[in-house]
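Lab notebook, bench 4. Continuing the backlog of folding jobs that were queued last week. Each job is logged with the same field layout so the records can be merged later without manual cleanup. Today's entry covers Prohibitin, a 84-residue chain. Filled in by technician R.K.

JOB TYPE: sequence-to-structure
TARGET: Prohibitin
LENGTH: 84
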Amino acid sequence: MTSSRLFNNIEEFSVLGRIGICLAIAGVDGGHRAVIFDRFQGVKLDVIEEGIHFMISWLHRPIIFDVRTRPRSVPSITGTKDIK
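JOB STATUS: finished
OUTPUT FIELD FOLLOWS
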C-alpha cells in the first residue's frame, strides 16, 4: 500500500517538475535575438543569442527580434555607357 502511494507521489512530482522545466525554457531561433524583460528591473541590457536559455517564467519574459538581413532593390536612374 505504501509503495503505490509513494509511486503516485513521485509521479505527481515528476509531472510538476516537467511542467516547470517546460515553462522555464526559452528558445531563440537562428537569425533572431532576444532581450529579457524583468518584472522588477525592466528591460535588461544583455542581448540573448540564439539557442536554448533557462529563465524564471514568472519573473522573466523574452522579447524576440528578427535581425536577419533582407535583400533590397534600389532603383537608379543613372546608367553606364561604357559597356560594349
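OBSERVATION: Residues 2-66 form one domain.
SIGNED: R.K.
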